[in-house]
Amino acid sequence: MIRSLTTLLAGALLCASPALARDRWTPAEAKSWYGRQPWLVGANYLPATAINQLEMWQAESFDPARIDLELGWAQKMGMNTMRVFLHDKLWAQDSQGFAARIDQFLAIAHRHGIKPLFVLFDSCWDPNSKLGPQHPPIPGVHNSGWVQSPGPAALADPRQRPVLEAYVKGVIGRFAKDDRILGWDVWNEPDNPAEQYPGQPADKAEMVTRLLPQVFAWARSADPSQPLTSGVWLGTDWAPGTRHRPIEDVQLGQSDVISFHDYGWPESMETRIGLLEGYGRPVLCTEYMARGAGSTFDGSLPIGKRHHVAMINWGFVDGKEQTRLPWDSWKRPYTLEEPTVWFHDVLHTDGTPYRPAEVELITRLTHSPTP
Questions:
Q1: CATH at 72
Q2: What is the pTM of this model?
């Protein structure tokens, strides 16, 4: 009797134990996954009708008709992926409803041959996100409504850890074996200081550096069939064997596939790709293309094609996000006139190209053989 009870208890404990996190992919496993993908080209995606992640995904403002229209435009030019930001508060508010809308988005994207790369956390822009109706765009200002996930208050509060853990495990667990998803970008620019908003904690980078390994572990515990990544973005000292910032040690040491951002001239893109190829893993550029900073489709996209690097530019359709406006609009809002050159974005709100030659280039490169 005692022996049977002990056996039963041991079995119950085994069943109740959380699944062990899968290991980081080996370079060979990562290359095998990448070899099954086409050359990946897309944009960081937010529909024109949304100012931020919350407005994109909340039930009252989720706009599947607009998403279907815009992803149809992307499909015509050969785009096959989109980097799409989620938010932890949406899961905490209504996990079932949020998951249903993600599933609806995936169905739309799949019809257009697009596999999204979902972003779980983000340290950029407004630290004080609030559910419900979002404020209208600030006239003349770039990305005036984007919100962090989680904000500094949640980062500093140990009571929020279970909430964040439930979000990561819940959303990845729900879609861990979904072939419609390209992968999971667990944290966008985790140590971004978001200086546009005063009052950011001085130790934000340290807090995120401590939390990021846990986020990777939470994500792996859901045993996703898709790769995990977090992109390096600041500086260029990324070569194997060199000294990195602590946050980069985590990003480069935990990512299944290597990702990075580059908003510089073509020489910068070529240099960064060369450094990151040294890790022997697939390389994804998850942000580029800021015309006023020297990063253009003409200069960068052919480099990505030549190196077989995934290329995901910032911005697709001009809308409430207002990222056609440059970063300096936070200091000098463009209220009296438009900038001389659009900063980000590919299409006007009605779907016409901002610069037809760019769309022709994207279409030509995505439809030509990859070296």
A1: 3.20.20.80
A2: 0.94
